[in-house]
Design a protein that fits this description.
single chain, mainly alpha, 2 helices, flat, membrane, transmembrane helix, transmembrane
């Protein structure tokens, strides 16, 4: 039991580290891309955030009512 648990913990740590590294790489690329198409990205992000918030609030209200 203890061996498998430690193996799982090590796996999870490796996954986390890998994810962090990937996220950092993505952020670097995003920064490079953002410099090129700053306006488009910001508009898309704004629309996505607006839609996401709107849908989230709408669903929350609907679920609360029912």
């Amino acid at each position: 039991m203890s061996q498998s648990k430690t193996k799982n913990i090590i796996k999870n740590v490796k996954k986390l580290v890998g994810d962090i590294v990937r996220i950092r790489i993505k952020v670097k690329f995003k920064v490079k891309i953002r410099v090129k198409v700053k306006v488009r990205v910001s508009l898309r992000l704004g629309l996505a955030l607006g839609l996401g918030l709107g849908l989230g609030l709408g669903l929350g209200l609907v679920l609360n009512l029912y």
